[in-house]
Specification:
464 residues, mainly beta, Pectate Lyase C-like, 4 helices, binds 2-acetamido-2-deoxy-beta-D-glucopyranose, 19-stranded parallel β-sheet, 30 strands, eleven-stranded parallel β-sheet, 3 domains
Length: 464
């Protein structure tokens, strides 16, 4: 069992990172290995930035002895029309190779239009990416350069130690992407019209560690706002994420295959999950998030296309979820394997939320999923102090577990959910859900089963 699971985890990690790496290398080889080197040769030596330095107070600097690389010193215009990509790449390249710790400065009062770009490390020293002005991509799919990936805008790759911060604004200009006819909310009769559908993630951090991302405002991403994959030691603090509630796939912060991640003190409203946690994530601590309108905080979806997913030790506490389609949710596809375990939801206030507490092991985004006999095992999930109101169109609790692999050790303690308007119509729903009620809940949950299911004693569940 031990051998099998560690080997399995290794395989998943290698497989996923190899896939991503292949995807990245196809997209970025040319600039990573040739263009980048040419840029290094022609670029100016590091110089303190006269322009914009007035708007960047020394007190906000991490390290007062750091060299400042203002994008203005490398030819950025910042009029919102000119293409400032080269200036950013050159500033990055110089800062990254700097012998002192470096600050890349995006000064206040300017708007920088930047094409899709990959900022690659490792860098010689720690970096601060100080965003005081505005940054935005080209406006919509027709303005996107033909030979660039439409799946990502700014990518930070193989960075070991970077703080990205500042009072600036990142505007993803998502509208024209959301309007593509293939987007889920546009599809009328279940038939997805042909045509390109890829949309860029605004900020993607890949294969990186020791990241701090704080204080930024980001709005209207074409797709996810932040995505962290294969990263560890990530501290996210005080982010403001805002997109319309109808914008498709605009998850606020998505993490995947990442560990030791903290997400604190952030305010997110968007058209999909506030925070979504994908396969291979563990040791994730989420605190003081205000979420909504949105689709809530989600673990999953896991186990797509019969894949293995291992997620454990995730805590979400001291947060508010309002006017959202879901509250705290775990979603898995039928046919997957692996497990989700040691998940704690503690002190979450719900305000007019559909499905405040939800486990859905029958997740299916396309309405054409067949019943399958394996599932990602859901175990040790605790809900403590979950209070507030729910939208009576859905049951206050929905624990739909797999026939093949029931959920076990779900614990409810101090749960109190009242209709936001009207009367309770639906009782809490459970299906193959086992666990304990530690104190009386409102409404009462009679459907949770005690003990441990026979089905699991005799089957060989993959516990990761
Ligand atoms: C895309 O084409 C432009 C213009 O031909 C070129 O400058 C750029 O390097 C290309 N980018 C990639 C990622 O191939
Ligand atoms: C669905 O709608 C599209 C366009 O509106 C149409 O071309 C297609 O035939 C429809 N499909 C079905 C199964 O009704
Ligand atoms: C929670 O986050 C909000 C938004 O960033 C912040 O204003 C507030 O001070 C935080 N509360 C605590 C207790 O840290
Ligand atoms: C769970 O994650 C937290 C960080 O979020 C960490 O401090 C703790 O040691 C982890 N627990 C285990 C058993 O790994
Ligand atoms: C899957 O199983 C459920 C519950 O056992 C049943 O209601 C449903 O009809 C099945 N669906 C298919 C496609 O077999
Ligand atoms: C059940 O879950 C709780 C809280 O998640 C945990 O403390 C406890 O150890 C688990 N019990 C078993 C038998 O695994």
């Amino acid at each position: 069992m031990d051998y099998y699971s560690s080997c399995g985890r290794y395989f998943v990690v290698v497989f996923v990172t190899t896939l991503c790496f292949l995807a990245l290398s196809v997209q970025c080889r040319p600039f990573e290995y040739s263009e980048f080197r040419v840029l290094s040769q022609i670029s100016a030596s590091p110089s303190p930035a006269p322009e914009g330095s007035d708007s960047f107070s020394p007190s906000s600097r991490e390290n007062s002895s750091a060299a400042v690389f203002s994008v203005m010193s490398y030819g950025a215009v910042g009029d919102g029309v000119s293409d400032d990509t080269q200036a950013f790449k050159t500033a990055w390249d110089n800062a990254c190779q700097s012998d002192e710790s470096a600050v890349i400065l995006v000064p206040k009062h300017y708007t920088f239009m930047i094409q899709s770009a990959i900022f690659t490390g490792p860098c010689k020293n720690g970096l601060v990416f100080q965003i005081e002005g505005s940054m935005m991509p080209p406006d919509g799919p027709n303005s996107w350069p033909k030979n660039f990936s439409k799946r990502q805008w700014l990518v930070f790759y193989r960075i070991n130690g970077m703080t990205m911060q500042g009072g600036g604004l990142i505007d993803g200009r998502g509208q024209k992407w959301w309007d593509l006819p293939c987007k889920p909310h546009k599809v009328k009769n279940g038939t997805i019209p042909p045509g390109p559908c890829d949309s860029p993630v605004a900020l993607r951090f890949f294969w990186s560690s020791k990241l701090i991302v704080k204080g930024l405002k980001i709005k209207n991403s074409p797709q996810f706002h932040f995505r962290f994959d294969s990263c560890h030691d990530v501290h996210i603090d005080s982010l403001y994420v805002k997109s319309p509630s109808g914008s498709p796939n605009t998850d606020g912060i998505h993490i995947e295959n990442s560990n030791d991640v903290q997400i604190y003190n952030s305010v997110i409203s968007n058209g999909d999950d506030c925070v979504s946690i994908g396969a291979g994530s563990y040791n994730v601590d989420i605190r003081n998030i205000t979420c909504g309108p949105s689709h809530g905080i989600s673990i999953g979806s896991l186990g797509i296309k019969n894949s293995r997913a291992c997620v454990s030790n995730i805590t979400v506490r001291d947060s508010v979820i309002k006017h959202s389609d879901n509250g705290v949710r775990i979603k898995t596809w039928q046919g997957g394997y692996g497990s989700v375990s040691k998940i704690t939801f503690d002190n979450i206030h719900m305000d007019t939320v559909r499905n405040p507490i939800m486990i859905d092991q029958y997740y299916c985004s396309n309405k054409a999923c067949l019943n399958q006999s394996s599932a990602v095992y859901v175990n040790d999930i605790s809900y403590t102090n979950i209070k507030g109101t729910y939208d009576v169109r859905s049951p206050p609790m929905h624990l739909a577990c797999s026939d093949a692999v029931p959920c076990t050790n779900l614990t409810l303690y101090d749960v109190e959910l009242l209709p936001s308007l009207g009367q309770r119509i639906l009782d809490p729903f459970c299906w193959n859900a086992y666990g304990d009620i530690k104190a009386v809940t409102v409404p009462p949950v009679f459907c949770l089963m005690e003990g441990f299911p026979q089905a699991l004693l005799s089957s060989d569940v993959d516990q990761c």
